[in-house]
Design goal:
The protein is mainly beta. It has strands at about 5-15, 20-25, 30-35, 40-55, 65-70, 80, 85-90, 90, 110-115, 125-135, 145-155. Strand 6 and strand 7 (about 85-90) form a beta hairpin.
Amino acid sequence: MRMRNGWLLLAMAVSTAHAQSCRVAAAALQFGTYDPSSRTPYDSATQIALSCVPQSAVSGAGNTLSFEIALSGDAHARALQNGSYTLRYVIYSDAARTQLWGDGTGGGLSFKGGLALTGNLTTAEAVIPIYGRLPSGQWIPPGGYSDVITVVVSF
């Protein structure tokens, strides 16, 4: 029985049209050790944390700063790589793993939401979960498999 390790690094890009400044942080999506003989898919989850200082035009109690998060690449053809070997995976925006997360094209949806202003009315924050799945039955050589996805946040 062969085992493999896989992880996904999320790189960030932020467009701050309606925010003075934003901080985006994401932890790697780690699938751990993969056993190709298993009939069960491997699921994993991580999150993206957003924290923004909105422009004065949106400041005030009850206001939100709307945003959209798009993930680079074809939502149907993501792959962790080890040299020329690939291990297919999928990213979803919901825990039930029914909504493909992509860039809004090719069947993958972008994630849209709003950042509510916090009690001090100067910062808008949100934590957005990311759900990943490695389908079962992929026979590949052992080794470390990885991929990098760009996370684009637009306000």
